[in-house]
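Methods, example record. To illustrate the input and output format used throughout this study, we show the complete record for DNA 3'-5' helicase. The sequence lines were provided to the predictor; the line carrying structure tokens was produced by it.
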Amino acid sequence: MKNIQYISAGAGSGKTYRLTEILSERLSSGFCTPSEIILTTYTKAAANEFKTKARRRLIEDNKLIEATELDNAKIGTVHSIANIFVNRYWYLLGRGAVANVISQSDKNFYINQSLAEIVTAKQIRNFAELREEFNFWIKAEGKSDAFFWREHLSKVIEVIDSYDIESLELSRQRSIEMIDTVFLNDVAKCDYKSIVDFLTQAKLVVVAAGKQKNIDDALNGKTDNYAFLLSAQGVLKKFVDKDKAELTLFNSTADSINKQLRGTLFGEKLKKYISVIFELAQRWKEKYKEYKQKNNLIDYNDMERIFLELLQNDVVKSEIQSDYKLLLVDEFQDSNPIQIKIFDILSELVEETIWVGDPKQAIYGFRGSDAELIDKVSEAFPSIGEPANAIGLSRDKLHNSHRSRGKLVNMTNSIFASVFSADIDLHLIPKREKDEFNSAPTTLHFESSERKKSDHFAALSQKICELLAGKGVISQVLCSKSKTLRPINAGDIAILANSNNDVDSIAAACRECGLKVSTAESDIMQFAEIQLIEAILNYSINGKGDDFSKAEILYLMNSESVEDILSDRLSYIEEREEDTPKWRHEQFQIAKIDSFIVKCQNQSVSEYVESLVLELDICEIIKRWGDYNRRKGHIDTLQQMAKAYEDRALQLGLGSSINGFLVYLSSTNSNDNPFVKADGAISVLTYHKSKGLEWNVVVLESLENDSIEEQKLLQKGMFGVQNYRDEQSTELYAQRYITLFPYCWGASNVPAEIAATMAQTPLFLKKTSTILNEQKRLMYVGITRARDFVITSAMSKNEKKWFQNIGIDEDQWSTHSHIIPISKGDEFIPLNCEPYYTEYVKEAKERRYEPKFISPSQINKPIAAEPQIVYRSGQRISIANEDMANIGTCLHNIFAIYEQDATDNVAKAKRIISSLEMSAAIPSEVEVIGSMDNLYSYLTATYGTPKAIHKERAVIMELGEQVLNGSIDLAWEWEDGTVIVDYKSFPGREDIIMKEGGDHYAGNYLPQLVAYQSILESSNIKVLDTLIYYAVQGVVVKF
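The corresponding predicted structure is encoded as:
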């Protein structure tokens, strides 16, 4: 490492602003050009945001050339930057053609498939015997874990792949050491018969029915394994002194069982299993490497590893040294070990390196970041304010908090001074010095008297409704744009919880109160409303012959029984002839879906999903099912996921499609569902997902969470698959090792004697410290999301264990807080906050759930028009005139997929014409594409290169008692405004379209275009011109 400035950027301190400032300063001074800059971010969204803000800053600084050339800078995630250099220097690796990148979903699919190949039938039988021996259990689901070995193996594979662990020998040794710590009694093979005899006798002695049932349960299963001994131990623990006195062999039997439960014979079985799992993992790693080489593939982890390998090459080092001068690293605290090595080496090749981060916000350890390594790297830097050391390492700090209210910043400084160690820089100076809220408290505490968590969440949701109605202590928040106070609304509020289960429950409670909710609810695919939409999407792709999707749709829509549907389908198959129509084609719901598909097939994915919900009355259907608010919330989440999918496809330079969206849904981990803020919606999410976001009011839930309670820490932090830095290594980049210890105690807690032994081990103490520090940072992130107010929320019966564990002084906290009792009101009337769906919407007057939708084309109010022909291409599309309706649909479909200068436009047009059986009506796909080429050339020549092109853009606007609902064929957008283009397929002469009063008069369409213009302008989108393109004639008409 050398010539690095490490900037500490606390929450809300203006990190992005500072990075753009540095960039502009270096470019203005001539230190570097855009092409000599590398900047890494944690996410693609952050990279895009930085590019936008940096370009804006350069324009403000009158650096127009640099702003134009900013795309030459290497700005992106570490993966994307690594991939650029890997492709550039691939030839130096001697691996043949440049490899393709395997997607994470494809990699996961390969892992699942390959596990079945590397595990033998004998090993699977051995695993089954081990499961029966120890009764491995899934506590969350309350059932035996038949596939425990698959989970262990998959997790080991994930860790060795993420951390590039070459050898598993150290991991095997450390795992065996843990087993030996627990299973240390060198006892003879267990005499199970004597224990069975004892329990049989004991049943005759004890009189309590419950104890007799416990004995029966222990004796009913296998009575010669570890699980039996564990059950027997549980039975004996419930005996009282009177029982023990009457059973002369009680003490000796209990002692024998306790010793056997820690016997080395059982330990040997576990050690043998551990060795097999590590051997299989090593074999998988080799097999995966061969697979990638054979198929010329690399994955995302390979990108970083290969880049690191290339950085050892003299040619690469020399060229980077001559080509790049500035390296900027954003969110340094979230870096994984390989990334830190990359930054380390790059700092020695470029002239200046700046790392920006905040160790207090390092909360992504579960994704591979290494807070412990970050701390060790930080030790090489001098303190803030000291001069750079001999190798050019220095520290700086962003001193001001621009986000939060002054009192809140000062409270956070004070509270966390006793939480974090003295060497962690904490203090921020509030820029919002004036307190806009006068005497309003800094924090509130909602304390409920409820005994059940579900009732507590209901009480919290009802109290939030009161705040939104202006009945609470908090009634106003500070507008971030105008810097003036305004009434609080739902979008100003976030509720943070520690688990996905709590997020789901809180979101459901909020919806029951009529609140609109934005959340990344876990595993929404299991719900019927989502399965219905999924079935319709599948039917949209597969067509009228997709009887499976039809059956699912009919089952969900009509509540028809599966038996009736299958019987009807079988009858159809038996009776159908060659000319028999498609099954159930006449069914009202199917016919309605067919009509919808034709109408909306050219929309984007997110628009299509949105239209599907509206046009097919999905919300009316789910009202009949009950639990409406939660189901509607799932649909909102699905719509947000559709938008997230489109954004992801755009970032990757890929096309988006309904089929791609379905694949995306199937491959998305339920815990990784995106969180997207929605206007007018309360945000409900985990603390982890809140990072990088902010709200005026933040509610902190899950304060009763005791992450370091001994049993919880043992079960989640010591058993299963864990990984650690090698504590015996003196290397900065110490190798990591894995521990595997199957949880052997079924649905029970770890036995007290074993728990006491494990709690004294160095690994347990290390894990306790690690989790405690993570919880400190997580709470800091949660509190610093708030701009104006923090609210804590808890049941009065529960202690705030989270605060207690991390060292927050509750007395000190209470001096800033105002306590408000809350309770669930049975007579509470839910708010009427029916959702709206549109991208372009006027300020809502009264939202109606069942508006009367009309299309802009249905507006027949005459408007004086002066159409004029402004362009003639001189080329026509040859068509057969008799089928104009279907010809128009076909042309619209082709125009929707057309991309300017794309080489496959003609081929796509041919496929569409063929699939719609329109080859006779439209004989030349070349002429069709030529017509669009002419239109785009005219628009470019007249208005300039567009910033964005929107096809089939869905628009909605309230119009009195009706709702205007339609789509703009083409919106040509650039910096100065938007041009609206409507397609018409009328093939007649020019004089007919210009003849006022005629059926085909161009002016007849002006009300439709004016409606589109009004919708866009209501959203502050300037419309420059409205045009009609008569595609068959090649004529443009302007109004």
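Annotations derived from this record:
The longest helix spans residues 264-295.
Residues 842 and 1018 are 6 Å apart (CA to CA).
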